Amino acid sequence: MNDIKPLWTPSQASIDAANLTAFIGQVNQRHDLDLSDYDALYQWSIDDQEGFWSEVWDFCGIVGDKGERILIDGDRIEQAQWFPDATLNFAENLLRSKSDETAIYFRAEDQAEYSLTHAELYRQVASLAAWLKARGLQPGDRVAAYLPNMPEAVVAMLAATSLGAVWTSTSPDFGVDSVVDRFGQTEPRFLFTADGYFYNGKKHDLNAKTRDICAQLPSVEQVVQIGLAGFGNDIDAVDWSEIVANPVDSIDFVPRRFNDPLYVLYSSGTTGKPKCITHGIGGTLIQHLKEHMLQCDIHPGDRLFYFTTLGWMMWNWLVSGLASGATLVLYDGSPFYPDGEVLWRYADDVDLTIFGTSAKYIDAMKNAGLKPMDRFELSSLRCVASTGSVLAPESFDYVYQNIKRDLCLASVSGGTDIVSCFVISCPLLPVYRGEIQCRGLGLAVEVFDEDGRSVRNQKGELVCTKTFPCQPVFFWGDESGEKYHNAYFARFDNVWHHGDYVMLTDRNGIVIYGRSDATLNPGGVRIGTAEIYRHVEQLDEVIEGIVIGQDWQDDVRVVLFVVLRNGIDLDQDLADRIRKTIREKCTPRHVPAKIVQVSEIPRTKSGKIVELAVREVVHDRPVKNIHSLANPEALELYRDLPQLQE
Fold first, then answer.
1. Is 156 in the same domain as 283?
2. CA-CA distance, 161 to 167, in Å (whole number)?
3. Which residue from 43, 159, 573, 639 could staple onto 129, CB 3.0 to 4.6 Å apart?
């Protein structure tokens, strides 16, 4: 493997200028070490966890009192406490600047566009915080948002957290039941919403949905509505503009403990009521600063974009960029309206530095034949980040051939569970095709086989064998801690089991093969679904696929569903070519016993396909909380199929 050439290698000049290089210098000086590269730093970061995270606090300039103790109960992952004596305020760390430089750019398709300077952002947060404080908002109270990805969402989050409140959010594409399933568990006192939003060139009125939501959330004492789409205030709500028009110059930031709750994020909810994953103030901040400044090399003035909604943890990750001095670039709407170049025009217009998106978006660009390299300068762009699902090796090729040759392709993976990444990018390392660059600093990531033995160059379970600051502090409403334990610690004793099926390479890179709960087991051999998707979706006729294991004759057989391009039907010739491709590119074990054409694939609202839900429908078992899906009606395409009865 070591003779494979990288797709990209950082220049010596960029290595010398990287925050990570300066950090290594600081560590060497303070600890009398001679760390010379990323691998050496990584090993030290997990060998001396207390020393590492203390250095991150100092290097990133966290505003607050670090306290004397760094870690207690560190040998017990579930019970460990990071920085138990520390106090800080999350919003204060994101509002360090009051300059007249731009803090946030915003576009909603071609319907709305505006920006905020750091000074304007601070003043709006101050006004809203004063309003919330006057209405009795207390530390620990929940504040919820049902909003598009717009600057007001950032303002509302910062105002709430400046007072020590807990923030939770969903996006307008969630239906009433999905919102109530989430907010009904966390019981917010205040709800922020908009009159409407734009998607695919159309305006969508949110007033009726908001009324229905509020009728089922008795905890909500006050609704604040933001005018965006021109529908007006048709609910019992305070108008946003009236609140921020009241000038307030300063914010009385409430100090909180490091492990007090900051965010409640929600699991997808496709296998039951969504879990309320609660993240701490300090753990979220220090982990995001580490990822932004050290792993993504964000410097003050960089322009940071991620295509996300408030229903995906990448929004929380994105807005933390303010703490590193980055300018946030927000977009709400369809990434293909009015055409597939809309986000790249935006990137050029604002001199974007980091472009973040999903693997599915990159696949869609590839399928549409888009080539931003030929149409836009993208002179400032130095990183394209991808997450949400597995980025296929061919998509690595596409980025370097069609977007930009000289950039770091940051394929990353982690999730809502840690509001960040286990495996991530590094500005000092090359990029290899189909491989995530490295394990994140301070995270003792290993790959376990079925027997819990650490392996390399072998597929297995992604685990973390030591505690880390961005573990959830608890699940909201899980008084006994049983749900939290079962989610991560039931499989291996005192080891975080993440649920990804992966391989650690000789280069210390990571290859991901899919979710381990969706792996296939024909004949008792484990197969990652991403291996099949990668090759099937290279065929011109195939748009995308979804694969499951069907219980059949005391074994499991592989069933592949495919969405084909318009006008193409699945005939025997195409089915044979699909099987031949999979057999040649993978193994005979990967070849599906059945291939079925469907018109649509069900997915979550963050775009992830739901193999488990399809598997349940095929086996005529109930799928819980189907309203958590973006297109639940698509599940009916998989029910009682005659092809699967023979």
1. yes
2. 7
3. 159
Half-sphere exposure of 532 (CA within 13 A, CB side): 27
| pLDDT tens per residue across span 524-568 | 667 788 889 988 988 999 999 999 999 888 778 999 999 999 999
The pair of three-digit structure tokens given for residue 276, joined into one six-digit string = 């309320």
- Global confidence as pTM: 0.90
Dihedral sign from CA coordinates of 468, 470, 473, 477: negative
- Do 606 and 544 lie in one domain? The reply is yes
Query: What are the angstrom distances between the C-alpha of 583 and each of 71, 257, 299, 593, 623?
Result: 50, 55, 47, 12, 32
Three-class secondary structure of residue 84 per DSSP: coil
Q: How far apart are CA 604 and CA 124, in angstroms?
A: 33
Q: Can you tell me whether residue 166 is helix, strand or coil?
A: strand
Residue 480 domain boundaries: 87-504
**DSSP string for 238-292:** EEHHHHHTS------PPPEETTSEEEEEE---TTSSPPEEEEEHHHHHHHHHIII
Q: Is 244 part of any domain?
A: yes
Peptide bond into 472 cis (omega under 30): no
What is the C-alpha separation between 414 and 400, in angstroms, rounded? 24
Picking from 202-206, 246-250, 391-395, 517-521, which range would have the lowest pLDDT averaged per residue? 517-521
254-294 pLDDT, tens per residue?
Answer: 999 999 999 999 987 666 688 999 999 999 999 999 999 99
- Same domain for 547 and 476: no
Neighbour tally for 319: CB within 10 Å: 24
The neighbouring-strand residues paired with 409 are 384
State how far Cα 25 lies from the chain centre: 31
Same domain, 493 and 560: no
Q: What is the DSSP string of 91-149?
A: HHHH-----SSEEEEEEETTTEEEEEEHHHHHHHHHHHHHHHHHTT--TT-EEEEE--S
Separation between Cα atoms, residue 301 and residue 398, nearest integer Å: 28
Structure tokens at 105: 């750019």
